Every structure is written in structure tokens, then in C-alpha cells.
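Quick one:
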Amino acid sequence: MRIPQMVQAAALSLLLLNGCAAAPATAAGDLPVPMARALAGSGIPADAVGLYVQEVGAPNRLLAAANAAQAFMPASTMKLVTTDAALELLGPTFSWRTEAYASGNLDGETLRGDLIIKGSGDPKLVVEKFWQFLRQIRAAGIREIHGNLLLDRSAFEDVAIDAAAFDDEPTRPYNVGPDALLLNYKTFGFRFAPDVAGGVVRVAVDPPLAGYPVTAPKLAAGNCDDWRGKLQPSVEPDGARFGGTYAAACGDQTWYLHPYRMTPTQYFGAVFRQLWSELGGRFDGEVRGGLVPADARLVASWDSVALPEVIRDINKYSNNVMARQLLLTLAADILKLPANPERGARAVKTWLANKGIGADELVVDNGSGLSRSERIAPQTMGRMLVAAFRSPLMPEFVSSLPLAGYDGTMRRRLIEQTVAGHAHIKTGSLRDVRAIAGYVLAASGRRYAVVCFINHPNAAQGVKAQDALLQWVYEKG
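Output:
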């Protein structure tokens, strides 16, 4: 860690956050005409909209504002707060390290003791990378393990996660909880391939698991409508069953599911056993939680991709699981304590306060926006975006946002408008919430930070109004 980062981290650990006074709210109704017209046609009142548009090179010049100091649910635009804080506090070269330790003695290629794997919260430890990590352990001379596999997750607090709590959809991959040893996003990919000649549906699971049976659905005729709803999945720790039907007309399809009834330890152990066997290893012990013993020796380590690649995945594709991992990483790295969401929120709030950005209204729940309790004011988000653009890390941050009309969650929006290719915009959507935040390079050559939150039962109809706003900023800014 460089000296400025060390000083900042120390300040974050010690500072008692009182917050800065927020600027007075701008009166509702000061909306650009094209946006106001679109809102009127959607049945969304002006007081349900929060707006803040500021030129990044002129801190005292607001192009538009409405309800700017009011707290709104930001949905996934909250990821901008988490990722910007991480870039500045952790640095652009930060990476996560996963380590393997051995206890006991190595007798030839036989470890007569335990293998211990310690995680630090890597958000992108996918199967391919984990396989390479296990190859390092094999290269260290270990083939047979006559002991247990211990999983050290002590970097994060052990907090029970209810995968159904947010939306009663526990099998959705976005409901996977944070884990210091998160492996492959704790998700299974089930690939369905109809075999018409054989009259069956063939199902493959990724990652493949030995001894994990999958009962396929029945092959059916008819159209491929609501094919997921017809499968009737049941994903259990000892196997998966699809009790419904799958139409031949669907062709090959893949469905990603969160096996929420499997504990993280069960999931990790199942993948480990399969990959270890494929690498020629033998292991018949138990897989359970534990800590690295004082006398254990390091046998292998794996460094993740650098932070900018992770925040690109988070912002371009709105990855909730990775964002939650990142918030906890902030707490673990800065506070040097087992991470939990409250400590991550404290790190973020203190970081904003140190930048002179008042955020008394800010509520950080999990840092991803997949929450009904997270709140932020448009002007807080806007001022943060202006500060981020003036940062030396601006290129990494801006390039992580979807480019309107081209990629990420903005690839299908504004395609026919002249603002396409000139706006880096993070989107957010929940029931009753639509949000955008990011930057627009106007036709004038000026660049603007743009934030717009809509919190209303008709929010889904507000997307056209937000698109009209972006086009207006491009033309009038």
C-alpha cells in the first residue's frame, strides 16, 4: 500500500463520521421540457423524481436539478458509490489472494494432515481459475490428502443469509450471499438439450460434479414459451430434479440457478472433489470450516484479476454478488476486522466525508442496490461523480460504466439517438424504481454528471423520460 493510501486508511479507521450539512433541496418541477412531457404521459408526478445535472468542469454550474437533496432508492446505481470508493481506497492494482496451506507432514506425494484454503473475498474465483490454483497445489507435490479440507472464511463475518428475503426468489443467482471463499458465484448452470430421436432431454451441469445426479424433465411438443416456468426445478445438496417438461422447440438452453439449500461449504467441497480427482488427486476426508493453524505452511497462492476488471463487471453488467463482495472487502482491508455490511458502510461514509461530500441521508445496506433500504440523494451521487471525474483514476472508473447504445445494460437504449456513444450511464431497476447515473459528453464538448431517480409505482414507464433527459443534456449542455 502506498503512503497516501496508508494515511487515508488510518484516517478512515479512526474518524467519527458526523457528516456535512447538505445543500437545500431544489424545488420539484424544474425538469427539462422533453423529460416533463414524457413523465406526464407515464403518470409519474414531479415529486417522485430526483434530478441532478452538473458540468464536471464547472462545480457551481447546475444544468438542471429537482428534489436534489431528497433521499431516494437508487437501485443498482448504488454500485457506483461502492466501486468508486473501492478504486480510491484500495487502489487500481488491488487484487484478492487465495491461499493454500498444509498441516502435518508430506510423505512423498501424500499429505498426512489437512489442506487449508483461506479466502479474502475474491469476487471472480471462477472454476477455470480455481482449477489453475489446484494445479499449483499439485505442483507443490501433493497428490493424496490423508486428512480434511478446511475452509478459512475468517476475512468475512459468518452471517446467515436468507436467499429468499429480498424477493422470495432464492434460486436467482443475484441472491447469492457474500462469502470470503466465494467459488464460481455459488451457481450451477444447467444446459438442456432435447434429443428428439431418443425422446429425452439431456441435462449437463456446470461445473460438473461427480456423484451429483440430475433428473431431466420430460421432452414435450409445442412452443417454447415460459420454458423455465415449466421445468419445476428442485436443486438439493445431493442432486437436482426437473419435474416438469421441456419443449423440443426450445433447442439448447442454459439456466443458471443458485443452489440455496447447499451451504457454501457443501458447494465448495463438491467442486473441489471433482476438480481434484480430474487432476489425478485423491481425497476421502471431510470438508468443513476452520482456521489456518499456526504451524501450517503455505504451499500455493492465487491472485485474482485486478480491481478495475472487477468493477467493470460490476457496473457494465450490474453484478450484485460481486458488488456485495466488494463492500465487504473495503471493510476487511481498511478496518482490519472481519467484514460485515455495517463496517463496509462506515468505510464508504467516511470516505465521502473526507472528500467534503455531505451525505447525512445515505443508507448503505449491501452496496449493490439490491435492497429496499438503501438511500442516497441525487446531489450526493452527482457530487461524487464530479469528484470521480477529476480523480487520477477517472479512466478506470468511467470505462466501467455502460456506453449508451453499445454495451452493458445500455446496449439496447438510445440506439437511434445522437447521444448514443456519448454517455457512460449506470442503470438501476427495482419494483417501483428506475435510476440512471453517469456522464454525458454534450455536443458542445462539455461533460456533465447526470443523476436521475424515479421512485413511484409507475417507475417502469419512466425509462423514456430518462432517455429523453440524456438526449436533452447532449443537445443543450
